[in-house]
Amino acid sequence: MRITVGEFLLGRLREVGITEIIGVPGDFNLNLIEQIEAMDGIRFVGACNELDAAYAADGYARSRGLGALLTTYGVGELSALNGIAGAAAEHVPVVSIAGAPPLFATEGRYELHHSMADGDFDNMLGSIGQFTAAAVRITPHNAVEEIDRALHTALREKRPVHIQVPSDISHLTIEAPGTPFDASWHSSDPERLNTAVDLILELLAGAERPALLIDLDADRHGFAPRLQAFAEKTRTRYAQLASGKAILSERSPLFVGTYNGVTSAPQVRRFVEDADFLLTTTPRFIESNSGAFTQRLPAEAIVDLGDQHVNIHGRDYIGITGTELLDTLIDRVPAAPEAPDVSASRSTEPWTVAPDAPLTQERLWPRLARFIRSGDVVITEAGTSTIGMGPQPMPDGVRYISSPIWGAIGYTLPALLGSQLAAPDRRHLLFIGDGSFQLTAQELSTILREELSPIIVLINNRGYTIERWILGMRSAYNDIAGWDYLALPRAFAPGTGMVTCSCEHGGRARGGPGSGGKIGQGRPGRAPPRSARRPGRVEGIRTDDRGIRLRPPRTPQSGLSWHAGGRDWSTWRCWQCSERIRVRTHPAGART
Fold this sequence. Notes:
Shape: globular
Strand content: 15-25%
Helix content: 25-40%
Number of strands: 24
Number of helices: 19
Radius of gyration: 26 Å
Low-confidence stretches: 514-537, 540-592
Distance between the termini: 62 Å
Largest sheet: 7 strands, mixed
């Protein structure tokens, strides 16, 4: 059948489950946006800039399985590149689409705006191609093959792909197949599959200390429900890396904890490093999830599962689909007759409300964790939010979104936008610091325009807290402007129903401008003047939880001391309240 290039591309996106394309209009993509507007079942959602749009497409993909980004040539593509690179680092499939100069200009090497004015139109593809699994400029002759190839690659490799659509071809008709896009995988080679499963079952049967170690690829490749089923059937206990948080149940008695090299809890470290059968999901160790590269996995015991192979004790078995191997393994493995001793499992301490007590970091994060419920999408920004929420066990059914590898601050507010567009029926909670919020704050206006209703907890530290602990505790370069965060929803969307409040203690909240009524035990009113504001406030946007306050950052009286290895304790004094505290210093210099 004959349809236009644009209709074919958009139809394919719709077939793989995309109902929103997030981006920024530009002169080279306007024709394609017109076609989006004319097509049922898919729509364009404009972001405030291309970087935010890329972050939002990433968040969309984490909740929907695939995201779509639309920019314009050159200036738009490169503005989005940081977000595309982040998706590549985090193994997130995003289809990046860019409207490109017309084919006649490309082939004629015209000197155009949004280019280097040198007739070279391959440099953008070359730049973006370094961070994508496929980067192609389509023509009417290759559109069908290249669009389908890009989609298959994104879905198979769990990486972003990039498609340039010249502005003069989106309305040209092509001969396209009348069959829907086939996203199914090829089946495994039967002999390789059975041989691998037989060997795994043999090794598991002979193991006395079997274990699972979970990282983020368990989520990306759809392994999580199968791994949970395998653990439950065999009563095999499991640990996670920080980059694999909440992929398997953190409330199960089979969950041991988070492995982080020498900084792990002793029982978690022994559990992983002494295992005689260790099933992994292609973990990637960086300094923050390995105890500064002190991981010691038992290489002779590892069975490493990838999406298209399994490595058993150093030998690769290729031609195997990971999900099919797990399905076969679960079907054939005998059920364990009884549960193991799990008496060492972590217990949850009871929480007591102290209405007048200032909230320290120690009290803040356990309190916030108790507000999370099953089915929520929890998003934590790089920095204090990820550090604080990391040790808190999530309820079952929570989708936990963070960026532990790429770690670009400002990622999470646009990611929240994308994720809630993809999963509007799920409650979304974002925990973000003020420094990160200021990088991408304008996307709050898009959230309001789209009439989304997230819960945003903004930790107002008056600057870059993590950087202060690294260097420059009192230095001006770690300061940021003091915004009136409570007023932003009304400034971005006059008449909005979004509720805001400022929380300073364990049981009280102060309503902000346009808050619309009572919050917790507080009352609506104006935000306090700047002279009355103290560091350490928690700003909550659309939260009906009890009011909370975060104590100001604890600042040492003397300079920071660094330790080359091992673990050390030192005593510091809070600069405001003079409370003495003990700080544990890890090899990488992080303090808890």
